[in-house]
Amino acid sequence: MQQTKRILAVFLCVCCLALCAAPTAFSADGGIRNVIFMIGDGMGYNHLKLAEEEGFEIFMDDVPDLLGWSRTRSANNKVTDSAAGATALACGVRTNNKMLAVFPEEEKRETLQPRSVTENAILHGMKTGIVTTDYTSGATPAGFSVHVLSRSDAQSITAQQLSGNIDLILGKKEDAAEQSAVEEAGYRYLETRADLAALRVGARAFGQFGSDIWKLDLPAEAPSLAEMCATAVSLLTTKNPKGFFLMVEGAHIDKNADDSKDGLKDYPEKRANVAEAVKTFDNAVRAAVDFAEKDGRTLVIITADHETGNLYPDGEDGRMTFHSASHTSANVPVFVYGARDLFENGAEMDNTDLVNLVAEKLGWEERFPIEDPVGFVAEPPAPVQETPQSNGNKPVSFLLRLWQWICDFFKRLFG
Ligand SMILES: [Zn+2]
Questions:
Q1: Which of 50, 131, 205, 258 yields a CA-CA distance of 20 to 30 A from 42?
Q2: Distance 138 CA to ligand 1 centre (A)
Q3: Which domains does the chain have, with CATH numbers?
Q4: Which residues, including other chains, have CB under 8 Å from residue 2's CB and lie 6 or more apart?
Q5: Distance (Å, rounded) from C-alpha 317 to C-alpha 303?
Q6: How far is the CA of 76 from the centre of ligand 1 (A)?
Q7: In this structure, are residues 340 and 299 in contact, taking their beta carbons and an 8 Å threshold?
Q8: Ligand 1 centroid vs 42 CA: distance in angstroms?
Q9: How far is residue 14's CA from residue 113's CA, in Å, rounded to a whole number?
Q10: How far does the centroid of ligand 1 lie from the alpha carbon of residue 246, in Å?
C-alpha cells in the first residue's frame, strides 16, 4: 500500500507540473501579449551620448535584451520624414515623404490602403493606445492611427482618429480637435493631469494637454510623457485578457535638433533642449520597462523614425556635435526589452521589418504589408456569448475537469 501511495504521489506531482506548464488560452509564441512600441523621434544612438554629456543618466541602453539597427529611408528619398518613417514602422510599407499610411503608387492607393499594426491589434481584440509629446495629429501618432495623403491635413487626421477604434489618444492640444466633436465621437476629453488620473478602465479618451509636455519641469496640471505612458499601460492592461498595443512617442528630440533656421550651429541651448527631450523620453522608457518586468508578458521595442542632426564627436573636446540642420539617413538603434530571440544581437534591419517582428511575437498569422480597401475601419471582434454548452475556452475547461477528476480520485483514495 505504501508503494502504491508513493506512485500515486509521483503521479499527482506530474499532473500538477503538466497543469502549470499548460499554455493559457491567450498565450502566443513566447507568451508575449502586450507590446509597447516606443519612438524617439529623430533619435540616433549619439543623442543618448549627448544627453549623458549634459549630465543626465540614460536608462534605455543600460541592459537591453537586444540592440539592433534600423535602416531608415522612404520610398522617394534616402532621408525619410516622420510621416513616411511612421508609415514604415506602423504598416511595413515605405511610402513617399509627407504621406501617412498610404501606398506610394498612385494607382494602388485609389483602391487600397496598408493596414497598420494598431488596426491589426484592434482586429485581434486587443486594446490600443497612442501617446505622444507632439500634437495628437502629429506625423508619428497619425502614421499609427489614420490613412491620409498629407501630414499637414490636421482636419482629416483628427476626423479619422475620432472615427476609429483606438482606446486612448494622448498628446498636445490640437486645434482641429474640438471638445464637442471629441465627445460626440464617444471619447472623454482630457485637458489636465487630474482628468487623466480620474480616467476609469474601459473609457475611451482623447487627451488634449495644453503645455509643452516634452519638458522635465512641467506645470502641475500637465502630465509628463512617463505619466501618460504609465497611466495608459495601467488602463489598457486592467481586465483585458487579450493584451494591448501602445505606441509612445518622444517627439521633441527631433524638434529640438532640427534647426534649419540656424544652420549647423551647435548652440548650448540646442544641446540642452535635445538632452532634456531625450531624458523625458527615457523616463517613459523606464516606466514601460518597469511594467514589462513586473508583467513578464510585455515586449518593449524602442527605436526612432530617423536620425536628426548628424551627431558625432568632434572638435577639441570630442563632444557630440551637430553636423546637419535636419534629418539624416543614418541607421537608428533598436533596443528590445522582454525578448532575446527577436533578432540576432547587433543585427541590421529595414524600418519596415520591425512590425513583422511584433506580429511574430504576438502569434499573429498575418504578415505586413496587408492591403485593405480604402476607407476600411478596423472594428474589434464581437464578444463571444458564453453559454453553459459553449466550449469557447476548451483548453481551460478541459484542464479544470482533469483537475477535478484528480482531486476526487485522491479524496476517495485517502479518505
Ligand atoms: Zn521624425
A1: 205
A2: 10
A3: 33-375 (3.40.720.10)
A4: none
A5: 28
A6: 16
A7: no
A8: 5
A9: 51
A10: 18
